[in-house]
Design a protein that fits this description.
By secondary structure, the chain is of the alpha+beta class. It has one domain. The strands form two sheets. The chain has a four-stranded antiparallel beta sheet. Helix 4 crosses helix 6.
Length: 210
Amino acid sequence: MSARQPVPTVPLEAGAGPENPPCPACGEPLFGWIDSRPGLAGPVSRCESCGLGVVGVPGRVEEALRALDGRSDGDAIRIANRAGFAAWIGGAGWAGLDPGRRYLFTAEAVRRLIAHRDQIVTSSRWVPGAGIATMWQTVLNGFTFGRNLALAALGRGEAVPAEKTWQRRLDGLISVLVAIPAMLVALPLELAAAILFRRGAALSLRAEVL
């Protein structure tokens, strides 16, 4: 019998084209991830190389860097991690899909973006409080018509309410009834994601000039 022939690999560049514009962070093509939803400026695409997510039409490097600068907290950059386990299980219900947010960052996307201005990431750490809250809201979003209702009620995010009045009323009741069970699920999930797999839902990164 003849030996099995190796399966040829297809580079990401082969997917480049008008429907797959380049990623602002690394230049690789963006591919579809989530279709248009209420509260989003358009469909969401993602980079298979650095993980950056883009809502709507991608802009240039400078625009993505300005969005990243908006995530600065003192000398740290705090991001909802699109490469986190919460984003993977949540999909369109991921709590990191805040209304008006254009770019959805990963640690690798940040590293590649800031390299354009001669900076490097010197450290990356999980943020337990924000990470658990993001996972908790992501789990809650799986039960409601709207998104991010609990975090908005706590002043830690912006909600996307359901379209119909009866849905909004039901969402309020569901959020109260499911809050504790959802936390009992979210807490071990986020701890495992962050500690065992380094895929926590929220990260704090520090950068410095080369």
